[in-house]
Amino acid sequence: MTAITPVIEKAIADIRSSFPECQVDAEPDGSGGAHVMVREMPLGRPYAQPTIWVGFQITFQYPYADVYPHFTCADLKRADGRALGEGLAPASHRGRPAMQISRRSNKLNPATDTAALKLLKVMQWLRTHP
Known about the structure:
Number of helices: 2
Strand content: 25-35%
Number of strands: 6
Helix content: 10-25%
Strand order of the largest sheet: 1-2-3-4-6-5
Shape: globular
């Protein structure tokens, strides 16, 4: 099994420093990348959950590959009872039920589009998703 590469270790450290209120767990994916789980991510309105977990894989191609897709709890629900809408779909994440958050980066810039920034953008989109 290949250890997590230094570039990806730095990406994980950046996520930890960008989200200090969250628990960030990472384990090797066997190819130099990592499976990352961010727990107790603040969410709230328009969703019923005050916090969620967010999981994703940072592949060995990082920073030249997008960190995509992201996953969260399968029971994600809006507080107003409306449907979740496009960009969110039931899925499986590492063998457990999950909700996939589909937010692909169409114009990836490896110099600026970090895993931490991508997670921030995903969370901003989720919090403002109609």
